[in-house]
Amino acid sequence: MSLIGGTNRKRLQVAVDFMSSYGVAILIMAVAIGIAYILSSGVTNAFAPECIPSPGFSCGYFSMADNGSLIIQVSQATGSAITVNGIACSTLSGLNGLPKYGNLYVNSNSMYYPEGFTPPANIPSGGSFTFFLYCYGPKGLSRFSKAGSTFVGYIWMNYTLYNTKINTTQQIASIQLQTTG
């Protein structure tokens, strides 16, 4: 013998179905509101530092201080040892795909030569080298008023392939990172 009659059982089933469907709808709305809040309030940092290398090169550690100085470890796998004659970090390209600013033995523009790197540097195939250089923009050295500022730019390298003695200047990476204090 059933304690709940047929009519009451149907009413209970309707009530459970009603609460389940509205409960799921409320849960979906709560999740959507939570995601919208997180995205609009900046609770998470969607910024991810990245270094996108050109073929034959890879980026290791890289960091930029708020004074515009960049430390970047560059590895190469061109199939030959290379001699780095110059390296540059800039926000813009200039003529012929060369950096417009921040040239250190990369093109003839000597206006923004940084300190601290005297070429050449030799990197064996499969090896790496850590460079200390400055990044430049249209107004000269890229300086930031506070840590956490964003820099987006490019790294160029003037290098000679050891086995062919061919000299090449090319963009070897694009970088995006936030400055540290």
Question: Helices and strands in order, then pairings?
Answer:
Layout: H1 6-41, E1 50-53, E2 57-64, E3 69-76, E4 82-90, E5 121-123, E6 128-137, E7 140-141, E8 150-161, E9 167-178
Parallel strand pairs: 4-6
Antiparallel strand pairs: 1-9, 2-3, 3-6, 4-5, 4-8, 6-7, 8-9
Describe this structure in words.
The protein has 181 residues and is of the alpha+beta class. The chain has two domains: 46 residues; 129 residues, Sandwich (Immunoglobulin-like), CATH 2.60.40. The protein contains one helix and nine strands. Strands 1, 2, 3, 4, 5, 6, 7, 8 and 9 form a nine-stranded mixed beta sheet that branches. Strand 2 and strand 3 form a beta hairpin.
Largest sheet: 9 strands, mixed
What characteristic shape results from the CA principal axes? Answer: elongated
Distance between the termini: 77 Å
Give me the secondary-structure category: alpha+beta
Number of helices: 1
Give the proportion of residues in helices: 10-25%
Please state the average pLDDT score: 77
The appropriate CATH architecture of the largest domain is Sandwich
Tell me how many strands there are. Answer: 9
Q: State the order of secondary-structure elements, H for helix, E for strand.
A: HEEEEEEEEE
- CATH classification, class level of the largest domain: Mainly Beta
How many structural domains does the protein architecture include?
2
Question: Over all CA atoms, what is the radius of gyration?
Answer: 28 Å
CATH-derived topology of the largest domain: Immunoglobulin-like
Note poorly predicted spans.
none
Strand content: 35-45%
